[in-house]
Amino acid sequence: MGPEALAQVLRPLQGMFAPADYPDLLQGLAEPDDAAVWRLDGNRALVLTSDFFPPVVDDPYSFGAIAAANALSDLYAMGAKPLLAINLVGFPNDLDPSILSEILRGGAEKVREAGAVIAGGHTTVDTEPKYGLAVIGMVHPEKVLTKGGARPGDRIYLTKPLGTGVVTTAQKKDAVDEKDIRAAIESMCRLHAGAADLLERLEGAGQVVARYCTPDDQPTEEWPHNPNGSPRAVAGICDPSGRLFGLMPHPDAYLYPFHHPDWQRRRLDGTSPPEGEGMAIFRNGVDSAAR
Questions:
Q1: Same domain for 116 and 184?
Q2: What's the DSSP call for residue 51?
Q3: What is the pLDDT of residues 52-109, one digit of tens each?
Q4: Strand 117-125 relative to strand 208-211, pairing
Q5: Which end of the chain has less Cβ packing within 10 Å, N or C?
Q6: Longest pairwise C-alpha distance within the chain
């Protein structure tokens, strides 16, 4: 169902649950996101979501693995570590049960790869196979990653290549090479755990060396003090040696006044600075090192 049709279906439910009545529901009743988040205490929050769909490839095992990886990806997108999953199955009575066994095996092995466990499930008779998971993960309440942090001008980094949907659709018409469908399946089965764990590894190694803060020195993900909505207020990281240091946004992108997108207006109204803020950052860094 498309977003417009879904909005129409959900319209009668608006106002039934007021966010103010559920202060521990950190995500779920306001802006749409990948999962709901419920705060347990000051250090733990549950992340819950579900996803299921009909086969996108012919091989039952691969379909199960793809569906499981897809559901788990919503937990990773929110910064959560997967804990457990519940199978969601629709299956026709006239298909060989061994097909379902392979679907479930593919999903189970993917959940195990994520370090989680399948703790049951629910099946129903359907006209075509459908499979997916309801999944639960854990995250620190202050480390939840949401879509709301995105800002105009932000760069998007892909953890997987685009185009798998085109390849699987072409397969249904026998219009794709075997090597291309194999590559698409491999990509769709790959968990996002590596990309999701990157920030944890950087913080654990002490490589996050600068954060965006409010005037009272509190880390923030909010505009304008965090200009690009960076998760966990990360503003700068270094390499393991500590000798290479990168800031975000890049100071070298604003060395001179005319690097600012609004520089003409600033020049006309007299608010243009003598140098860009990036140059000031470099100058302050050199001065501090010299002392």
A1: yes
A2: E
A3: 999 999 999 999 999 999 999 999 988 899 999 999 999 999 999 999 999 999 999 9
A4: unpaired
A5: C
A6: 79
